[in-house]
Design a protein that fits this description.
Shape: globular
Mean pLDDT: 93
Strand content: under 5%
Helix content: 55-70%
Oligomer: single chain
Length: 99
């Protein structure tokens, strides 16, 4: 596995952990959480849960990404289709932009 793919896997696992903390283990066990999972559709996360996730992402990665700025530039359609993979790519791209 190349270093970027390894990093993507690590970031995905971190985000998955956050999601499970937010929605609860009982609900998470019933869902198929994957990088392609869409927050509103597949994970059935509501806006408050998504805000909680955003706070956790900002706490962990806020020094390398402007998560709120990135989200604020999106159209509603993009927000509705936002997947875990989209956030993983944002974070990994930011972590590697100066390399």
């Amino acid at each position: 596995m190349d270093p970027i793919e390894k990093q993507k896997e690590e970031v995905y696992e971190q985000l998955k952990k956050y999601i499970i903390e937010i929605i609860g283990e009982d609900i998470a066990e019933e869902l198929d959480i994957s990088p392609k999972s869409i927050f509103t559709k597949d994970l059935e996360m509501d806006s408050i849960e998504i805000v909680s996730l955003a706070e956790k992402v900002k706490t962990k990665y806020g020094d390398v990404i402007d998560f709120n700025g990135w989200l604020s530039e999106m159209e509603m359609e993009q927000l509705i289709k936002l997947s875990i993979e989209d956030i993983v790519n944002l974070i990994v791209d930011a972590l590697n932009k100066d390399k």
